[in-house]
Putative ATPase
Amino acid sequence: MFYQEPLAYRMRPEKIEEVVGQDDIIGRDTPLYKMIQKGHVPSMLLYGEPGTGKTSLAFAISGSTHKEFFAINATTAGKKDVERIISEARMTSNAILFIDEIHRFNKSQQDSLLKALEEGVITLIGATTENPFHSVNHAIRSRCGQIKQLKPLNKEAIIQLLKRALDDSEKGLGELNVKIEETLLASIAETTGDGRTALSLLEDIVYASDETDDGIVVTKETVDYCIKNKGFSHDNKGDIYYNLLSGLQKSIRGSDADAALYYLARLLEGGDLEAISRRLLVIAYEDIGLANPQLCSRVLPAIQSVERLGLPEARIPLSVITVELSLSPKSNSAYKALDKAIKHVQKVATEDVPAHLKDAHYQGAKELGHGTEYKYPHNYPNSWVYQEYLPEEIKTMTYYQPKELGEEKRYKNVYDKLNQLKQQERKKYT
């Protein structure tokens, strides 16, 4: 028996009790569940990765109420579609308007919802893969009593979803009498936290399996083949993409090589070598810095190797440099010092450059006293001589706070020694 609609579409829950894997949001003890059971549906924004069940939850809420329900997708609908729905909704006491990919609406399109929301003509359920605090207007957010983040489904929830599809004779695959071992269902569930992908994968596996007199028998070979060829990708402009890059950097910063390799693997499956390389270069100077400058200097050649090799070989230098960065001593003191100086300059920046440091490479500079008292360090033992370099008003200002980690410990010793000499010389002039 073949259906025109995909299995994931057919198995969409019709009531909130059928929603799988989001118990913290719509479980029987949650305030949202109790509201809906009593017929009250607040306007809300549902935020999460693809396949976490945002659309399913919206349709389940509709099925659990007696309100009129309109559903549109912001990628294809426009302002006129919204105005038409609002006009129809005015004929009823209140209607639910579900807008999938609401972040695709521009400000004008989002603003067209405000009056109807305020008047209670519509209850809005917006779904987005983007962080709503970045992608949805504040005016819309302030009118949504609930902003719920749906998490990827865990293995147990996916297995529950798959079993439900296998048992359902009306919408699922029940009439096909599919025979599949529990371990194979677990293999499917372990490939993704995306319910839609898992159901689509199950559907492919079932129709790729051999049919016998007892029904359809699913083998490990068929499951492995379909999983291998399912592929993986992520939207390189979506929230998950930036979260993965953030996870990579924070894992390296936290010296967790295993976690760093995990996030690197997920990013590699997305195929964006340029973003990975750029982030690793930033990490080298932001998080390793003076603690291991030799390693920083090796990151760029590694990235150039990645660019020259391409995938799959590019994973080899990426793995090496990721582990090295993870296990290296860490320091952010250099750029933090610069940030402190920038903040000071932006706030003040009125001090004059000391006369002995001013440019003296032009006729008349000597008459102005520019550079005349400058002491050339290379003319002195150890290439150091006392003189003030900061303007007089801030000559005791310090920005750099060295750490005693890795190579920076050596730099700290030099820095401290020079400051000690400077203090001794200052006392002679005061």
About this structure: The two ends are 96 Å apart (CA to CA). DSSP finds 20 helices and eight strands in the chain.
